[in-house]
Amino acid sequence: MSNSNSDIESGDLDVDLDLTDPVLASEAELAFEGALRPKSLEEFVGQTRVRGQLQLLLTAAMLQQRTPDHILLAGPPGLGKTTLAMIVAHEGGRPLRMSSGPAIQHAGDLAAILSSLVPGEVLFIDEIHRMARSAEEMLYLAMEDFRIDIMVGKGAGATSVPLDLAPFTLVGATTRAGLLPNPLRDRFGFTAHLEFYDEAELEQVLARAASLLGLDADREALSEIAGRCRGTPRIANRLLRRVRDYALVHPASGSGRRGGRADLTAVRAALELYDVDALGLDRLDRAVMQIVLTRFGGGPVGLNTLAVSVGEEAETIEAVVEPFLVRIGLITRTPRGRVATPAAWRHFGLADRAPGAAAGLPIDDL
Ligand SMILES: Nc1ncnc2c1ncn2[C@@H]1O[C@H](COP(=O)(O)OP(=O)(O)OP(=O)(O)O)[C@@H](O)[C@H]1O
Ligand SMILES: [Mg+2]
């Protein structure tokens, strides 16, 4: 936790803000997210490679007046998958139908959606790895031939009736591309792998959001938030909103725009209050790291053991917490489990307890 000259003690308040779980986000947060979503590829910040690839695919389809190929968007939560799906529809002037894997639990659920698509429609299936297996098989045929077979009747008298579908573009999103069966993955014409954003890109995301919120935030303030949002635009926007709240409640001297004025002091105070440390680790990240470091002496620890120890789903640890911890070099994945790096021991002020420290090795040599 960084020092701040705030007069607020974060320990006095029981604030439990989940910065990563979209399911726990309040409706207000979701409305806020929607309002900040870029509407075109041009407005979409960063992911230069994916943007170029998508642009080419969409433009080629437009030139030939056909529906674009199916697109799979893969990557950790909050990096812009839903936003890109909406952009694909918007850029081509096509209607968009939104569904999700957990909502498709029977082949019939999918048949109902597919048979009601209009020509050229974009069908977005979020969390596509959670779709029922029977629906997955129906989707193979639908993606390839724009056709499905509907079973009529039961038992020995059952027959399958083919049904032609309107040509459509499937946009699938997944945080766990590895869980998709190969036949499904292979039927996408293009897979976009979204990467975490760098700080310069996050500053752009934040500058855009601040201006939409009418918040007057200086460069230093935005850069501080950018360094603490785990490479994730959703978290950047959410932290910015907390900073905006802080700026409204503690107006700095001098003028501000309608949404208030935020400087470095306000950012540090707000983020300290919400328990976001200098690296952007939140409570869950820190809980995971503490367990690896203190209970398991730095590891290796298996994913399931870790999940049980912090009382979280293994899936959350694997999809939400771990990719970031690996990316910033606090843990590494080994065949025997997760292992803390020297940087982790240092960040948590435990360098003297690191394995080998007693032997007098400098921590960087461990
Ligand atoms: N490249 C970007 N430029 C600007 N804002 C972005 C960008 N990517 C994402 N955002 C913002 O981040 C928020 C989250 O993005 P989005 O909902 O698309 O993420 P997601 O990948 O679908 O996450 P999940 O896996 O949780 O569904 C949106 O409100 C959007 O405004
Ligand atoms: Mg999404």
Automatic annotation (TrEMBL):
Organism: Agromyces neolithicus
Hydrolase listed as a keyword: yes
Protein name (Swiss-Prot/TrEMBL): Holliday junction branch migration complex subunit RuvB
Domain spans labelled AAA+ ATPase: 67-198
Cross-referenced HAMAP family: DNA_HJ_migration_RuvB
Residue sites binding Mg(2+) per the record: T82
Residue sites binding ATP per the record: L36, R37, G78, K81, T82, T83, E144, D145, F146, R187, Y197, R234
Gene from which this protein is expressed: ruvB
EC number assigned by the record: 3.6.4.-
Catalytic reactions of this protein: ATP + H2O = ADP + phosphate + H(+)
Record's subunit section: Homohexamer. Forms an RuvA(8)-RuvB(12)-Holliday junction (HJ) complex. HJ DNA is sandwiched between 2 RuvA tetramers; dsDNA enters through RuvA and exits via RuvB. An RuvB hexamer assembles on each DNA strand where it exits the tetramer. Each RuvB hexamer is contacted by two RuvA subunits (via domain III) on 2 adjacent RuvB subunits; this complex drives branch migration. In the full resolvosome a probable DNA-RuvA(4)-RuvB(12)-RuvC(2) complex forms which resolves the HJ.
Gene3D superfamilies per UniProt: 1.10.8.60, P-loop containing nucleotide triphosphate hydrolases, Winged helix-like DNA-binding domain superfamily/Winged helix DNA-binding domain
Job of this protein: The RuvA-RuvB-RuvC complex processes Holliday junction (HJ) DNA during genetic recombination and DNA repair, while the RuvA-RuvB complex plays an important role in the rescue of blocked DNA replication forks via replication fork reversal (RFR). RuvA specifically binds to HJ cruciform DNA, conferring on it an open structure. The RuvB hexamer acts as an ATP-dependent pump, pulling dsDNA into and through the RuvAB complex. RuvB forms 2 homohexamers on either side of HJ DNA bound by 1 or 2 RuvA tetramers; 4 subunits per hexamer contact DNA at a time.
Keyword vocabulary terms for this entry: ATP-binding, Cytoplasm, DNA damage, DNA recombination, DNA repair, DNA-binding, Helicase, Hydrolase, Nucleotide-binding
